[in-house]
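Homework-ish question, so no full write-ups if that breaks the rules, but can someone show me the predicted structure for this set?
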Amino acid sequence: MVAAKSPPKTSCYNLAIINSINSMNETNSLIQIKGLRDGLLVSLDDAPWEKQRVALLTQVDEQPAFFQGARLALDVASQILHVNELVDLRDQLSERGISLWAVISESPTTEKTAQLLGLATRISKPRPEEGRKFAVEDLGEETALFLSRTLRSGTRIEFAGHIVIFGDVNPGAEIIAEGNVIVWGRLRGMVHAGAKGNRNAVVCALDLSPTQLRIAEEVSAVLRPREDPKPEIARINKDGKLQSEYWSPG
Amino acid sequence: MPAQVITITSGKGGVGKTTAVANLAVALASDGAKVVCIDGDIGLRNLDVILGLENRIVYDIVDVIEGRCRLKQAMIRDKKLPELYLIPAAQTRDKNAVSPSDMNRLVKDLRNECDFVLIDSPAGIERGFKNAIAPADRVLVVTNPEISAVRDADRVIGILEAEEKGPGALIINRLNPALVKNHDMLSADDVLDLLAVELIGIVPEDENVIIGSNRGAPVAFDPKSRAGQAFRNIAKRLRGEKVPFLDLDHADGFWQRLQRLAGRK
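A: Not a homework solution, just the prediction itself:
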């Protein structure tokens, strides 16, 4: 199930005149729409975002009956999208009775934006072949997601590598990493390191008080918030149990 | 000067959003500002009841949006304060009758008409909440000093940040200094420690608030009420005045702590 290849660049040119002539064909050549088990998958290419957005909305407005009430997943290829762009599109779609539930992207920035807005970044259907290979190759030691902000309740960060957070993780936030998790701040939400079964993964934080801590398949319930927090590191010990200890220099 | 558009929201229900809107509106209008309140809780309206204007409703916000009346016709003037108006919610419709762009259009028409537009958001983080924050220049998040309300406030602040509406300013409502002293209630410090946003007011628990709501006369009218004073102070802060936080407890150290909080960004 490989999404159709991006159309040739010449179609971008066609797009500029899309509003003046009735040209379903040009629109179609830019935007691929496929039915999924639970909604529609719309694939965009790397043409300028504004043009693609307009093309998508034009297509929706031309066939309102087809789109009404649809759940829509958007594959934006390598487009770099910021919060306001996705919010605008989501609102415009929702005014047309369409709910945007997932944004799939090769760009980490776009993925982060989508996660911030509570949108899914994966769909159950396998990714196109090349995308998947990319993900596997990138699962090396040095792959990490760095976030410099406070993660508030309701935020879920999932990453196929390590996660480093410079800020607090509040109760109700969730962090899921295939590698290690490092928090330079207070960790009070749910954290899962080694999510794909890596039992060597660790979690460390300046104040390690998560509501729940998981490494690989091991789960530990509440670690009580401490009066006088110290940097701490949690790992699976020799007996196969979760254990945490204070960090000490040297 | 164009109006300041302020949305009051909370995530959790029952923490005092509507009470805060009514009292801030009364306090601002008593100070001579022209204020328009919009009840964004379509289907579950009650700002009209708290302001004591229920029996004057002819047209509501959905009538304006769907073009059945002019904006001015839906603005109900307060009984006591001639500069205070309410645009009531529709009771027989639901949140989907309005979209965020409808709200933007409506508020745009009000901006040159008054000094403050106060929007009362419904509880939750769905359509009604999105409608209420869409036109906001500034968002006030109301919370109570209890864990579930603080957790929801945190979620709402996260959404506000993601939607680039700024982190918002916090009102801690219904603080009971005696319970805090016995460690039976979160202190203002505990709440701020978690949420890490600007504090704009602490409102003490006060039975006059409920009495006022039931009479349709918000407590901000009552010069003797502590909660009324707290709301009047928040109104002053909204106008850019520096007002010290109320001394809610005469015990040593508490005043100093509040002063420290006041200086905190």
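Now go work out the reasoning yourself. Hint: The mean pLDDT of chain B is 91.
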